[in-house]
């Protein structure tokens, strides 16, 4: 084993520190002369899933597992030993008769240890399993957080598209002439942004159309959130009804750091709304209600241009690990550039298709 | 379930001559109560009637021990705190006395109206009288939760009541909202409360786990409404499948002719939207609209592809078109079972399914449920906020009315199921475990909202979302016995 260190120190600076390299298959291999596969939490998880799918560690064979997992670079050799360990781990009382060894001497020493002091051996094995389990859980929780945010975003975007569609229908009915006159290729902006509804100034855009998912306090940055949030609202209100806001891009891209307290946030947002609109009594008339929707849609539509830029670069919503195509949607550390799609969950998606809803 | 009426107080409520202060709505009535077009001399005509009816139940009632002050000048009362009138306990200590007692009275009146409208002591006159009185007292724009809740219930009961009386087709201002309004209110609701998304996201997570290794996924959706649930599923699929391992998603949505042309058009529209969305994010997708002529569902109307994993999705927790009747759902599930679905997701409200309980029991249960919902909304947004009122009027009001229609004994399809999970269990479905990730997600979702929300496990195969001590909506997962794990 001593030899191993030398080559790595000679190979390059980064390998000095890392004994493991990640191949393009996603496997983590050590840089020993005899590359050993590092069973990361993720890989193990996939393994466990595959085994479960095949009906348990007893029914599964290395061959079938390999097929199900479909991981490049994973050999039967790897799976054989891992499966055996897994089986043994599941049934600690089973005999450790004959199992394949990676390095003969080491393994047999472990064997002896186990057989001699089997109980303590089992305990340490269980401890390991437990540790791995805990790690697995933590890892999973982080994954869940990330996924949830993306999913809620997606939903928000979708809802926006529905609302716009509905409002457009509404607006179309009410102001048919105006919309026809103002129609420009590209859908919404022409219809709703400038012409017909410019008259309907006053109440600010519906704050709840700002996806509250910025409030997912995933990165734990809490300092300027409230302030940022207020500024954000203000700026948006000013930009409301003005078309083509390059400025909006900055607002959204610059926006970061979620607010941990969604409830309060919503209240703040809505209070601003109600503050600015004293006339909105508790008993609104239907007209007011229509106005709300129109505002919601218009707000969204003003950001269309900024969004379209963003979406030209990446038309997908993928944001998971490994995929860096959607730079904006990917999440580097605390900075939340993906907020831009979050903030404007609307026809940026539609834009690319020339507004099928128009 | 019996309510202990404060007998004297009840009569006082009716016959009190301190009229100015009782109504918090804009009315400034004097001695003569406005009762639509009835001109009633309360003391003469109806006191006897009411007394006799109340007298029947007199044995159950006890006079209220404390003297409740008349409700003067409510304008002066500051009611910023949420009026969480817990019906079960009756009294919430922190609230101003007058509000809470008024709340209690409203409840009593509502129950009285419910009772009067059905059951052994059915009395049309009494019902009408009580409803009229209620309308006087409350309106959807009132300042407390209880009042608004009572207003919606009053409206709902009135509609029910007027079904029988063809002579007076009342035009409620809030009767029918157009689609855009409803969708806006729906979106607002999604942001105000985890109620909607809990169902969607929990089901979606279970689906993702079940079809992890499948190349083709076919989801049969019982009631797709706007298809919001599938946006997040598509996103998850796209982000998970990079490269050639894309999973193909197919959704079949059902529409029933019994729900009217509007529902059919809506399902088609949803299909267009979903297709556009899928295309915009690069998810292979196809949509099929299955039109049913009756409530009965048969798998022959479906298009099936070999090698696809079938998932059955049944979202019953939102008010949509009228027919989510139990029979229709049962027919659907029974038939769908023959497809050997890999997963069946069922999300439903924790209300209404009461076995063979009577109308009153269900009415109380409904009152509890919506009281909890109102409370939970209050925790997110103060009652003064116009968005609240909007959602309540456009979305929740009709929801209440819909439910009231469903639980009346007159309805042909009385919901005699004790619970959905029970039905599924005894009809050839096996429970599917809820994963750790799913539980995490639910807790995380709740953390975005008020502390009052809780999520609990529901047996081995489900999660339930509740507000304080009241269960609101539950999600459970099943598979057919023959489907391979």
How are the SSEs ordered, and which strands pair?
The complex is a heterodimer of chains A (358) and B (485).
Chain A: H1 2-11, H2 13-17, E1 20-22, E2 28-30, E3 37-38, H3 41-53, H4 62-69, H5 76-90, H6 104-116, H7 118-174, H8 176-182, H9 188-193, H10 225-239, H11 246-254, H12 262-276, H13 286-302, H14 304-313, H15 339-343, H16 348-351
Antiparallel strand pairs in A: 1-2, 2-3
Helix pairs in contact in A: 4-5, 6-7, 7-13
Chain B: H1 7-15, H2 42-56, H3 97-117, H4 124-137, H5 145-164, H6 179-192, H7 195-210, E1 216-221, H8 228-240, E2 248-256, H9 261-281, E3 285-292, E4 308-316, H10 326-337, E5 343-349, H11 359-380, H12 386-407, H13 420-425, E6 429-431, H14 436-447, E7 453-457, E8 462-467, E9 470-480
Parallel strand pairs in B: 1-2, 1-4, 2-3, 4-5
Antiparallel strand pairs in B: 5-9, 6-9, 7-8, 8-9
Helix pairs in contact in B: 1-2, 3-4, 3-5, 4-5, 5-11, 5-12, 6-12, 7-8, 7-14, 8-9, 11-12
SSE class of chain A: mainly alpha
- Globally, the shape of chain B reads globular
Terminal-residue CA separation of chain B: 44 Å
Helical proportion of chain B, percent range: 40-55%
Please tally the helical runs of chain B, counting DSSP H or I stretches of 4 or more residues. 14
Strand content of chain A: under 5%
Major sheet characteristics of chain A: 3 strands, antiparallel
The radius of gyration computed from the alpha-carbon positions of chain B, rounded to a whole number of angstroms, is: 24 Å
Number of strands of chain B: 9
* Distinct helical segment count of chain A: 16
Tell me the series of helices and strands of chain A, N- to C-terminal.
Answer: HHEEEHHHHHHHHHHHHHH
Mean pLDDT of chain B: 75
């Amino acid at each position: 084993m001593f030899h191993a260190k030398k080559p790595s120190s000679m190979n390059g600076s980064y390998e000095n520190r890392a004994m493991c390299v990640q191949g393009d298959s996603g496997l983590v291999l050590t840089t020993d002369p005899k590359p050993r596969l590092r069973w990361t939490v993720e890989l193990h998880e996939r393994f466990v899933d595959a085994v479960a799918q095949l009906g348990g560690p007893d029914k599964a064979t290395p061959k079938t597992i390999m097929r199900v997992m479909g991981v490049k670079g994973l050999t039967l050799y790897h799976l054989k030993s891992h499966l055996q360990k897994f089986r043994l781990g599941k049934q600690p009382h089973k005999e450790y008769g004959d199992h394949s060894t990676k390095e003969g001497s080491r393994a047999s020493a472990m064997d002896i240890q186990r057989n001699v002091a089997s109980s303590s051996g089992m305990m340490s094995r269980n401890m390991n399993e437990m540790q791995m389990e805990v790690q697995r859980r933590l890892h999973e929780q982080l994954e869940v957080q990330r996924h949830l945010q993306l999913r809620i975003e997606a939903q928000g975007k979708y809802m926006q598209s529905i609302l716009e569609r509905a409002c457009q229908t509404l607006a179309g009915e009410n102001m048919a002439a105006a919309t026809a006159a103002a129609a420009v290729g590209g859908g919404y902006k022409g219809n709703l942004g400038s012409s017909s509804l410019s008259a309907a100034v006053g109440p600010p855009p519906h704050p709840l159309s700002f996806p509250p998912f910025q409030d997912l306090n995933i990165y734990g940055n809490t300092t300027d959130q409230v302030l940022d949030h207020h500024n954000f609202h203000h700026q948006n209100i000013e930009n409301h009804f003005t078309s083509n806001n390059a400025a909006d891009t900055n607002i959204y891209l610059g926006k970061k750091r979620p607010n941990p307290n969604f409830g309060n946030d919503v209240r703040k947002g809505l209070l601003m709304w109600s503050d600015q609109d004293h006339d909105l009594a508790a008993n609104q008339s239907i007209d007011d209600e229509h106005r709300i929707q129109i505002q919601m849609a218009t707000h969204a539509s003003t950001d269309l241009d900024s969004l379209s830029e963003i979406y030209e670069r990446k038309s997908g919503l993928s944001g998971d690990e490994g995929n860096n195509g959607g730079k904006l949607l990917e999440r580097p550390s605390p900075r939340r550039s993906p907020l831009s799609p979050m903030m404007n969950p609307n026809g940026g998606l539609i834009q690319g298709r020339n507004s099928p809803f128009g | 379930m019996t309510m202990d009426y404060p007998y004297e107080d009840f009569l006082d409520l009716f016959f009190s001559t301190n009229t100015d202060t009782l109504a918090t709505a804009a009315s400034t009535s004097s001695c003569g109560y406005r009762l639509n077009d009835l001109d009633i001399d309360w003391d003469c005509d109806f006191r006897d009637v009411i007394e006799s009816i109340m007298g029947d139940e007199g044995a159950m009632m006890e006079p209220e021990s404390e003297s409740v002050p008349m409700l003067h000048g409510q304008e002066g009362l500051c009611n910023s705190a949420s009026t969480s009138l817990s019906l079960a306990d009756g009294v919430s200590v922190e609230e101003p006395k007058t509000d809470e007692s008024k709340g209690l009275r409203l409840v009593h009146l509502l129950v009285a109206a419910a009772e009067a409208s059905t059951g052994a002591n059915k009395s049309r006159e009494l019902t009408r009288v009580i409803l009229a009185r209620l309308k006087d007292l409350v309106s959807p724009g009132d300042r407390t939760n209880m009042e608004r809740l009572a207003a919606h219930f009053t409206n709902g009961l009135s509609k029910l009541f007027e079904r029988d009386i063809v002579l007076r087709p009342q035009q409620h201002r809030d009767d029918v909202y157009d689609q855009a309004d409803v969708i806006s209110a729906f979106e607002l609701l999604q942001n105000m409360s985890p109620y909607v998304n809990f169902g969607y996201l929990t089901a979606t997570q279970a689906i993702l786990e079940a079809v992890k290794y499948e190349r083709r996924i076919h989801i049969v959706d019982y009631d797709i409404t706007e298809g919001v649930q599938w946006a997040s599923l598509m996103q998850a699929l796209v982000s998970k499948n990079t490269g050639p391992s894309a999973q193909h998603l197919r959704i079949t949505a059902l529409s029933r002719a019994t729900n009217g042309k509007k529902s059919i058009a809506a399902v088609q529209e949803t299909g267009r939207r979903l297709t556009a969305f899928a295309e915009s994010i690069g998810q292979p997708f196809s949509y099929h609209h299955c039109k049913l002529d009756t409530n009965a569902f048969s798998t022959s109307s479906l298009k099936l592809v070999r090698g696809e994993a079938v998932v059955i999705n049944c979202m019953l927790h939102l008010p949509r078109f009228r027919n989510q009747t139990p029979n229709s759902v049962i027919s659907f599930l029974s038939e769908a079972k023959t497809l050997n679905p890999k997963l069946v997701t069922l999300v439903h409200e924790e209300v209404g399914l009461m076995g063979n309980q009577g109308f009153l029991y269900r009415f109380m249960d409904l009152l509890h449920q919506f009281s909890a919902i109102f409370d939970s909304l209050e925790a997110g947004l103060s009652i003064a906020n116009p968005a609240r009122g909007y959602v309540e009027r456009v979305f929740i009001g009709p929801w209440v009315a819909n439910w009231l229609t469903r639980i009346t004994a007159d309805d042909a399809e009385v919901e005699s199921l004790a619970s959905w999970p029970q039905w599924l269990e005894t009809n050839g479905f096996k429970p599917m475990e809820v994963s750790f990730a799913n539980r995490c997600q639910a807790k995380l979702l709740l953390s975005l909202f008020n502390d009052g929300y809780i999520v609990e496990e529901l047996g081995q195969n489900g999660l339930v979302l509740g507000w304080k001590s009241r269960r609101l909506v539950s999600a459970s997962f099943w598979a057919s016995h023959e489907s391979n794990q």
